[in-house]
Design a protein that fits this description.
432 residues; mainly beta; Immunoglobulin-like
């Protein structure tokens, strides 16, 4: 009986060993350990354990819907808005434009559990972030939403002064062209002001000032301010003057100077004229002084670099106490937009004739100088005029213009002009 029991116990132990080795073999072949749940390798599925058993769920998903609000002012400026997603440190993941309602939707399944930076962007020629609107959001499964209110669009301010020489110019149209749009300036020579029509402009006031209080900051900080000075024609190209400013939200001032004509006077003279003073006058009797320049060292010309439009007459100048008087009686007429005038003048030594009208009545004055050049002008009563004349005898006739009873007062003078100043007074009976 005992032998039977021992045999039965041995048989049972052998069966247990066989069963144990079978279980171990199965675990080795499947790569698992006892009581471990088998999981698939896919990262997009979830496994849930319930009472030691496992079951597979649907694929995980996450979306992000971004809504931009306060966007109307950007629309008025023609700005295209969008949103860009970034992940630390500063890696761009994706960007897209928003729809007309300010919405943009992203698939962010790959970023579940991670924090993303959400930044509105504005696009007008180039792309810029909307300052002060950056947000961060940790992504979770399912629907993620974020609403961002945009600040008012940044505006730049500029005040532009337009000068003709030193004088302010009113009623001039000044265009503001962003640096990004600078190719438009190259078209002015062919098309004039037409390429500038899309850009903002302002008209100068009585003080020659054009103000720009609301320039679009989305086009960069640099702006050209442009005045078209001459439209193109069949004979000439269009011309313009400009100034470039770097802007911000504080008023910036710039000055545009309209192009000035220059006059070069060449002298026919055998003498050394270096340092000779040359004057431009606004009247043919060489009064109304406008400009003064000096002949350069060992040069026989003088350059007036900036001359406003108008008609000019030359006295030539002064040297060693004597005048060198121009024989250009017709003068030079300078027209707006024309750049350069050159005139060759014969000059001779001369002096100054001082004329004093002692009467209260006006007189006409006629002069024939030693070179047979004629001078005719009027003088009011109790006035004095000075005229530059060449050396030699000048014939002078004076005639009362008004204030006489029957006949006007007339007088003739022959005056020898020389270095320095010679004076006459008329009518003789009124002079000291």
């Amino acid at each position: 009986m005992g032998n039977c029991n021992r045999q039965l116990k041995n048989i049972i132990m052998k069966k247990k060993h066989i069963l144990f080795f079978a279980v171990i073999t199965a675990l080795v072949l499947t790569g698992c350990k006892k009581d471990e749940v088998v999981k698939e390798s896919s990262t997009s599925t979830s496994v849930i354990e319930i009472d030691g058993n496992s079951s597979v769920t649907d694929e995980r998903k996450a979306t992000l819907e971004v809504t931009l609000t306060e966007i109307e002012e950007y629309k008025k400026l023609g700005v295209v808005l969008g949103v860009q997603l970034k992940i630390a440190p500063n890696t761009l993941l994706e960007k897209m434009h928003v729809d007309v309602f300010g919405n943009a939707q992203f698939d962010v399944t790959k970023y579940i559990g991670k924090t993303l930076s959400v930044e509105p962007i504005q696009e007008k020629i180039e792309i810029f972030p909307v300052e002060g609107s950056l947000r961060s959001l940790k992504i979770h499964e399912g629907q993620n939403s974020l609403s961002i209110g945009l600040p008012d669009p940044q505006r730049y301010k500029a005040r532009i002064e337009v000068l003709d020489g030193t004088e302010p110019v009113k009623d001039v149209k000044v265009y503001a062209v962003s640096f990004l749009n600078r190719p438009a300036l190259d078209l002015i020579t062919l098309s004039g002001s037409k390429p500038l029509f899309p850009f903002p402009f302002a008209i100068t006031n009585q003080k020659g000032i054009a103000e720009f209080p609301h320039l679009d900051a989305t086009e960069g900080t640099e702006y050209y301010f442009v005045v078209v000075t001459e439209e193109p024609s069949s004979l000439s190209k269009g011309k313009y003057s400009k100034v470039l400013l770097t802007l911000d939200d504080i008023w910036k001032k710039g000055t545009i100077k309209l192009p000035q004509s220059s006059i070069q006077i060449n002298f026919e003279s055998l003498e050394d004229l270096s340092g000779m003073k040359v004057k431009l006058y606004g009247k043919s009797n060489l009064t109304d002084l406008k400009y003064t320049e000096f002949v350069g060292l060992q040069e026989s010309f003088v350059l007036f670099p900036e001359v406003a439009p108008g008609k000019y007459y030359f006295s030539a100048g002064e040297k060693s106490g004597c005048l060198y008087v121009s024989q250009n009686g017709a003068g030079i007429e300078v027209k707006k937009g024309e750049d350069f005038y050159s005139e060759t003048i014969k000059i001779v030594k001369g002096g100054t004739l001082r004329l004093r009208c002692a009467s209260s009545n006006p007189y006409t004055v006629s002069i024939v100088d030693s070179k047979n050049k004629y001078w005719n002008f009027e003088m009011d009563g109790k006035t004095t005029e000075r005229i530059k004349l060449p050396e030699g005898v000048a014939q002078i006739k004076i005639k009362q213009k008004s204030g006489y009873m029957i006949y006007p007062t007339k007088e003739d003078f022959n005056v020898k002009i020389k270095c320095g100043e010679v004076s006459i007074c008329f009518p003789s009976d009124k002079c000291d």
